[in-house]
Structures are given as structure tokens and as C-alpha cells.
Amino acid sequence: MATPDVQALPRAETNGLGAAEYNPRPSSDALQNIKESWNSKAGAASYEQRTLECSRDIAQHLIFAAPQIAPGSRVLDNACGTGIVTRELLKTYSDVHIDAVDFSDGMLDVIQPMLEQNGWTDRVSTVKMNGISLQFEDGIFDVSFTNFAIFFFPDPNKGAKELYRTLKPGGTACLTAWQYFGWLPVLHKIQKTVKPDDPPFAVPMLAKWHEKETMVETLKAGGFLSSKIRMSLQEVMYLDDNIEELARSLTGLMEPMMKGIWDLGDQGGMRGALLRVFETQGDRFLVRKDGKVGLKLVAWLALATK
């Protein structure tokens, strides 16, 4: 897959603030809100709808970027969530066995019916498991995938060590992390109306992980050599039919994260606040593609070979 020159791409959006002013503050409350939402069955079930298939699009790019997987290989879908990587893998590779693990009961409740519906239960094993303490023997996986998850681990370095430990020599760990959210500058615009004196809000899973070095240093701490780590950037679009539907979709994504942090009641809630920004300043933030409207997202793709 052709990949962009990571050195030439811009750093994260500062939303018009000078470098000295831009000091985002990650919110521990927001992080806890996200975890609670995705641990619930309802939150897990709506995950793909709320992300408008962006996680799936990145998973497809990651699978394409990964080394060719030989028939009979054993693959780890680590922190598998709703089974996006597992589903996309089995569309491309029918003769592999996948161990899909996640620490969230809600996510595992979603993946199992999907496997049964597609007749994949003989090719996929699911089990509740913590990514920083994988209950597998050393050196059993040919390839592992950790899609938008390592930054949620309480100790990402331990998670990287587990990936390294469970890979066969020559095996590859494939990971992703978000580098840029196109909706973050929109959120900062809303913040100026409710919390004008606060530092710009930082999304927990973007803080520091938008930097290439964070992923590289985490993988090195896990045991991977820097010469065996390849990083690239991949752009996707968070698209919906019109600005009204886009505001609705983003509300589903943001409301669980912002619960109890901002009071937007006088603006018609999160959806009203988003719609107001789109209607008055949409040209600053929105992109249009194939008759739809949305926002740009950029992800890091990391391939680390043992």
C-alpha cells in the first residue's frame, strides 16, 4: 500500500491558537465516560454506527498494509471490540484461525452473534482477556492486530510486551492510533461558549498518541527493535448525508464522552451546538465527498516485526 511521508504531514490541529496557547488538557472524566459507554452492551452495540465505519475503513487499510497471511496461520485480534478486524480479515483470508479477545463483556456480547450469523465460530475463538496480561503461550501468533486500543490500556508498555511475547519470531504486530480528529476543532469552538477560560479540551485517546514517537517508544519498550517498526499515516472521512445527520451522528459519539463535563442545555444539547457551528462556520471545518458531508480523520498505522 502506498503510504504518505509521515515527516511531511502536519501536526495536530491547533484550532487557530498560537503554540504557546495550545495546551490541551486530557480529561480523566471523559476517559472514564468512554470506558463505561463501551463496556455496556448498548454502547458496544452502537459503536460502529457512532463511528460511521471509520474504524472499519482503517482496519481495511491496516490489513492491506500487513504482511500476507499464510493459510493455517494463527492470528490475534487483540481488544477486538465488535469484531471489526476479525470480520474484515475473514473476508480476505478464509483459512486462518483468529483468537478474538477483549476485556469488555459488552463488546464480546456483540461479536458472538456476528460470528454465528456468518458461520465463523469454527474459525474464531472469543474469550474475555486483558490486553496487558494475555493468557496465551509464548510465540504462538503469526500476526496480531490491535486496532484503536493500546492507548486505552492502563499500561501500554505492558500491552506491547505481551504482543511481542506472544508473536512467533518473524511475526508482525499491527496497531493503530488516532493522529487527528477533524471534529476536535469543532469541539473547541463549542467549548469557547461554555468553558472559555479552560485550556482546549483534549480527547483522551489523542493526547500524546497523535505523536509518532509515542507509538514507536511504546513498541520499543515492548521489545521491538526500532529498525523493525514501520509507521505510516492513513486518512479517512467521517461522512454523513447532510449536516443535520452529521450532527446527530457526532452527538452519539460525543455525548457519552462529555457526560457531566459540559452543560449545553441552553444550546439545544450537543446536537444543537454542533449544528449551530456547522450552519455558521461549516466552511472552516467540513469536507464534502461523493455527495456527503463530514470531517477528516487521520490514523497512525504501525507494523512491528519480532
Please outline what is shown here.
With 306 residues, the chain is an alpha/beta fold. It has helices at 28-39, 41-45, 47-50, 54-65, 84-92, 105-118, 156-166, 184-194, 212-222, 243-258, 269-285, and strands spanning 25-26, 74-78, 97-102, 124-128, 141-146, 167-181, 201-202, 229-240, 287-289, 292-305. Strands 2, 3, 4, 5, 6, 8, 9 and 10 form an 8-stranded mixed β-sheet that branches.
**Sheet bearing the most strands, described?**
8 strands, mixed
Mean pLDDT level: 84
Secondary-structure-based class equals alpha/beta
Strand content: 15-25%
Which residues form runs of ≥5 with pLDDT under 50?
1-27
User: In angstroms, what is the radius of gyration?
Assistant: 19 Å
Tell me roughly what share of residues is in helical segments: 25-40%
Q: What general form does the structure show?
A: globular
* Total beta strand runs: 10
Total of DSSP H or I helical runs spanning 4+ residues: 11
Order of helices and strands: EHHHHEHEHEEHEHEHEHHEE
Tell me the distance between the termini.
21 Å
